[in-house]
Amino acid sequence: MQEAQTIGEISEQTVRDTLATINYPGLTRDLVSFGMVRHVSVCGAQVKVTLALRSADPTTPVRLRDEITTRLGALGATSVAVVIEPPAAAPAPARHGTPDPWADCVRLASVRHVIAVGAGGRPVRPSGQYVGAEPPPGEPPAPLAQSPQPSWGGPPPSPW
Question: Which CATH number does the domain housing residue 55 bear?
Fold first, then answer.
């Protein structure tokens, strides 16, 4: 164990170096290399350490708190506070592709259901050409855009 240092020699870096010598219970890696040390503050001989820790074993926080208090007390700390908080949630992964154009729009609070209505036909360009793949068998290859049937019963427009 390290010898006790004078009160003036305790610094955040000294505390972090000491925490780097404390292994997580049952493992061979230390708290600093695991990224569990969230914050360290030193005010004279008072030290506060905040850890990000989530463990299913209820004895793990107690064992870590005791070990940290013992080691920092050996450095000359008169008061050691160990705060254990759950780790922060991981950020949401970046979405690839086209962003949602409606994501920032206000939703209508009174609308309970939305019904999408479509024509049910295949999409056709203004030139009369089908959009996408070739037309299914039995359909004309590329119909022209047709105007509606005249009401006087004249001949239908020619597709050619």
Answer: 3.30.300.130
